[in-house]
Amino acid sequence: MGDLVLTVETCPHYLAFSAEEIPDGDTRFKCAPPIRDEANRQSLWEALLEGHIDMLSSDHSPSTPDLKLFDEGDFLRAWGGISSLQFVLPITWSYGKAYGITFNQLASWWSERPAKLAGQTNKGAIKREMDADFVVWMPEVEFELDENYDIYHKHRNISAYLGQRISGKVLATFVRGNLVYSEGKHASAACGAPILAKQ
User: Fold this and answer.
1) Three-point CA angle 184, 187, 189, nearest 5°
2) Do 163 and 157 meet the contact criterion of CB atoms below 8 Å apart?
3) Measured distance CA(144)–CA(131) in Å, rounded
4) What is the rounded CA–CA span in Å between residue 74 and residue 62?
5) DSSP E strands, the chain
6) Residue 199: band (very low, low, confident or very high) from pLDDT cuts 50, 70, 90
7) What domains are defined for the chain?
8) Backbone angle region of 83, left / alpha / beta, with phi > 0 → left and psi within -120 to 50 → alpha
9) Where is average pLDDT lowest: 2-6, 65-69, 96-100?
10) One biological-process term from Gene Ontology (predicted)?
């Protein structure tokens, strides 16, 4: 195993939730691996801050409400996965503030290190000659993720983050310098390109 490269990642829901907080039968929280206890959550934060965890990923896994089996509360049969892509930045920031995380750490965990792992040398930072992929946000603005929040497009009730009050409102998102999201409205056409191999 001498030359083996090992990377470690975790997801926002493992940093935000603990098993003790999950109501019995609330299948919105079913994912794999399952959400563990509070001691495990704290250990994940420690590992992330100490550099033992390299990066973060969304593990975005949405489904239709019927697949979550809300009425049955059957964790064994319900769809496994948490719809989270649209909340990863504010969730990480909101929970990470208690640990003193910085904007540079957020950028490293969510952009720089994943781009490096994928061999995308033109992504992961805001620099000359690189793709202008970035987000404009207001980190101290608080908001509540309720069913009326405008970032939801469908299946609002399946989010494990429903009811959370968090910080970090995203105002705009740019991909390759093109505005693709602004104040609740999305671009009418895609402007990205498939990432098929290392660059």
Assistant:
1) 155
2) no
3) 32
4) 17
5) 9-10, 55-56, 134-144, 165-175, 178-182, 185-186
6) low
7) 9-186 (3.20.20.140)
8) beta
9) 2-6
10) purine nucleobase catabolic process
- Residue 1 in this model has a pLDDT that exceeds 80: no
Backbone angles phi and psi of 138, in degrees to 5: -115, 95
Residue 56's SS3 state is: strand
How much helix, strand and coil, in percent to the nearest 5, is found in the chain? 30, 20, 50
The answer to whether 185 and 153 have CB atoms below 8 angstroms apart is no
Q: Is 2 exposed, middle or buried (0-12, 13-18, 19+ CB in 10 A)?
A: exposed
Q: From CA 162, how far away is CA 146, in angstroms rounded?
A: 6
Give φ, ψ of 113 to 5 degrees: -70, -40
d(CA 14, CA 140): 23
Strand partners, 173: 135, 181
Residue 153 has pLDDT above 60, yes or no: no
Cβ-count burial 92-123 (b if 16+ within 10 Å, e if not): bbbbbeeeebeeebbbbbbbebbbbeeebeeb
Residue with tokens 């490269």: 5
User: CA quadruple 162, 77, 155, 97: dihedral positive or negative?
Assistant: positive
Angstrom distance (rounded) from CA 74 to CA 61 = 18
